[in-house]
Automatic annotation (TrEMBL):
<protein>
    <recommendedName>
        <fullName>Haem-binding uptake Tiki superfamily ChaN domain-containing protein</fullName>
    </recommendedName>
</protein>
<dbReference type="InterPro" id="IPR007314">
    <property type="entry name" value="Cofac_haem-bd_dom"/>
</dbReference>
<dbReference type="Pfam" id="PF04187">
    <property type="entry name" value="Cofac_haem_bdg"/>
</dbReference>
<feature type="domain" description="Haem-binding uptake Tiki superfamily ChaN">
    <location>
        <begin position="34"/>
        <end position="237"/>
    </location>
</feature>
Length: 289
């Protein structure tokens, strides 16, 4: 009880210019959102990787849920599965932060945006899952246009048992996003179908990374495209575990004009914030969402 109370009192102060809306259109106080999320097995929080306000929201949500569930597990898109042991070694104090960072390929905005999450988890003995497929494996699949042990090479150990490519809605949304990208960019000359397979590989690997932890409540931070509309990772997880209660929280800037219909379709809960100066975008990452 002492630990739980201390976590609750560590709740970060929230900016006044946020609005939290449920899928039914109800406006919620922050504590009402946190209480509502306790009804779910897995909670996906989708961010814009370059939004400072989104990262502040994530720390607030993590703190609130950890205060309500001492067995909470945190999962992060921002670390790849092959650095799981390094991440664990840092969390339990076996290696220094310098050693951890040297071996874990942190994103460029780690210090400002993701370090607070990892340090909170470390200080409160919260397990953290390095969920993503190694970037080199996704790149190899995008080049080859197929998912196989041969293509993934040493990273084939992370190949999931299930791999669902059957969502027409996800394919259409992904294709539209790729088509909208400048043709001179790194994706310009690549096949959309091949890129889609690499995208779904990421989703499937991240869903599979949760398998050892499904007897815990899991809080998963990822880019919005990986979770909006219950597609991406939630879709893969739901196909494998249809009885699981999965929530999606979308962190969206106020400048993203959405009708009530759009809001209810994107997520179970929408956290609207005022835009702030952008952080540095991860190098080579096509996702702004």
């Amino acid at each position: 009880m002492i630990v739980l109370l201390s976590l609750l009192f560590l709740q970060p102060s929230l900016p006044e210019d946020i609005t939290i809306i449920s899928a039914t259109g109800d406006t919620l106080f922050f504590n009402e959102l946190a209480d509502a999320l306790m009804d779910y097995n897995v909670i996906f929080v989708g961010e814009r990787h370059d939004a400072k306000a989104a990262h502040e929201a994530e720390l607030a949500i993590l703190t609130a849920l950890a205060g309500r569930d001492s067995n909470l597990v945190l999962a992060l898109e921002m670390f790849e599965a092959d650095v799981e042991e390094v991440l664990y070694a840092y969390l339990v104090g076996d290696i220094s932060e310098d050693s951890f960072l040297a071996a874990s390929r942190p994103w460029p905005n780690y210090q400002t945006d993701y370090r607070p999450l990892v340090e909170f988890a470390k200080g409160n003995k919260i397990s953290v899952v390095a969920a993503n497929v190694p970037r080199r494996a996704a790149a190899a699949v995008a080049q080859a246009g197929e998912v196989s042990h041969e293509v993934m090479g040493v990273d084939s150990v992370f190949m999931p048992d299930t791999f669902h490519l059957d969502s027409e809605e996800y394919y259409e949304r992904f294709s539209a996003t790729m088509q909208a990208m400048p043709h001179g960019g790194p994706m310009g000359k690549m096949n959309v179908d091949a890129l889609y397979k690499a995208q779904v590989l990421k989703d499937a690997v991240m869903a599979a990374s949760l398998e050892p932890w499904l007897d815990h409540r899991i809080l998963f931070f990822c880019g919005r495209f990986h979770a909006d509309h219950h597609l991406g990772i939630p879709y893969q997880l739901h196909k494998n575990h249809p009885d699981f209660k999965i929530a999606v929280v979308a962190l969206a800037p106020a400048s993203e004009k959405l009708s009530l219909k759009d809001r209810s379709g994107i997520a179970d809960f929408l956290w609207i914030y005022s835009p702030q100066p952008s952080a540095k975008q991860p190098a080579g990452d096509p996702e702004k969402n």
